[in-house]
Design brief:
Order of helices and strands: EEEEHHEHHHEEEHHHHEEHEE
Strand content: 15-25%
CATH architecture of the largest domain: 2-Layer Sandwich
Number of strands: 12
Helix content: 40-55%
Largest sheet: 8 strands, mixed
Shape: globular
Number of domains: 2
Distance between the termini: 23 Å
CATH class of the largest domain: Alpha Beta
Oligomer: single chain
Radius of gyration: 20 Å
Structural class: alpha+beta
Length: 339
């Protein structure tokens, strides 16, 4: 049998404004970044499916029959979640399960066949569970590698549809934003069901990793729904995002910083900014920069994933005092691709 090796790569993202509100159809502004999920599928002797999640050194050999059974178990967990009988974090219990579910889901839905064994390796330069779209990037890179390995093609709409069906099991209710950014790359303003491309921002910014939140994205989405469905807060988020979009288009750093500070206040109000992270943001603001969480944040615990910091003042000492990590990133114009 001929050896085949296919590698696909998809970028992560940072939300500049509109996290949580975008789930309810409100505007969002987001940017693909140059950190990636990469999936490699290769021919392997035997008949099993060999999975490797390299970041956590997870390895698992499994048969197609066992994968079908795993898919049924995960689907049952998700149905329990939809009727309130379990939490979303109990549906997908580890990153390897997401990879395995995505694989067998695509095999079944596209009626794909594989002769012999294969190896599936997934590796990320994105931190997991920190609001940078790692799940979407993993899902899309796996789908692209798999359909290419099997000699098939998918339309853009199908990548988004299948990706969202899979991501729902990770987050409860996927907005589709992470998937769109990972698929296309670039910077986009999302509003009223439309996507409007923007130039990559030319602003001084860094990302600060406060650590993986104890609460999952799905848990946070569930918790804040009461704020964004039944109050004027969703309108406040919308106005802030629209103003930030205009500031970016005009390259107005001061206005952009004002919008970020307002966005931070709103995120604190809906309860997704832990006090320790809020104290860090206050110190960054006192230095002259603006900062906000980027992503779901956290509804409990001290860590909240990524904080977006905009400004040209050095904050390395503040970051070190809080034992956080600065991530140097750039906007990424390219989306899902083969490498």
């Amino acid at each position: 049998m001929q050896d085949i090796v296919v590698t696909a790569r998809a970028p992560g993202k940072v939300i500049l404004s509109g996290e949580h509100a975008v789930v309810y159809g409100r505007p969002a502004l987001a940017l693909a970044i140059d950190h990636f999920a990469t999936t490699t599928i290769s021919t392997k002797s035997g008949h099993g499916i060999y999975f490797e999640f390299l970041n956590d050194n997870l390895k698992h050999m499994i048969t197609l029959h066992e994968l079908h059974e795993l898919k049924e178990q995960i689907s049952k967990r998700y149905r329990k979640f939809t009727v309130g009988k379990c939490q979303i974090k109990d549906v997908i219990r580890c990153p390897l399960e997401l990879v395995q579910y995505a694989f067998i889901y695509m095999m079944e839905n596209l009626f794909l066949t594989i002769n012999g064994g294969i190896k599936i390796q997934v590796e990320l330069t994105l931190p997991i569970g920190c609001g940078m779209g790692a799940s979407a990037a993993v899902i899309l890179s796996l789908i692209h590698a798999l359909v290419t390995y099997c000699g098939q093609e998918l339309t853009v709409d199908k990548y988004l549809y299948f990706g969202r069906e899979i991501e729902n099991l990770q987050h409860g209710r996927s907005s589709g934003l992470d998937l769109f950014l990972s698929l296309h790359g670039g910077c986009y303003f999302f509003a009223a069901g439309e996507t409007n491309k923007r130039h990559l921002p030319n602003i001084p910014f860094v990302l600060v990793n406060t650590g993986k939140a104890e609460a999952s994205t799905g848990e946070c989405v569930e918790k804040v729904s009461e704020y964004l469905q039944n109050s004027s807060l969703a309108d406040d988020f919308s106005q802030t995002t629209v103003a930030m979009d205009l500031a970016l288009q005009n390259n107005d750093l001061l206005m952009l910083q004002q919008c970020i500070r307002k966005n931070n206040e709103l995120l604190y109000e809906i309860g997704v900014v832990p006090k320790k992270v809020s104290d860090f943001i206050a110190e960054v603001e006192a230095r002259g920069n603006a900062a906000k969480i980027s992503g779901a944040g956290a509804i409990y615990g001290d860590k909240a994933g990524i904080v977006l910091v905009v400004g040209d003042q050095d904050i390395s000492d503040i970051v070190a005092q809080h034992d956080y990590e600065i991530l140097s990133v750039q906007g990424e114009s390219n989306g899902l691709c083969l490498v």
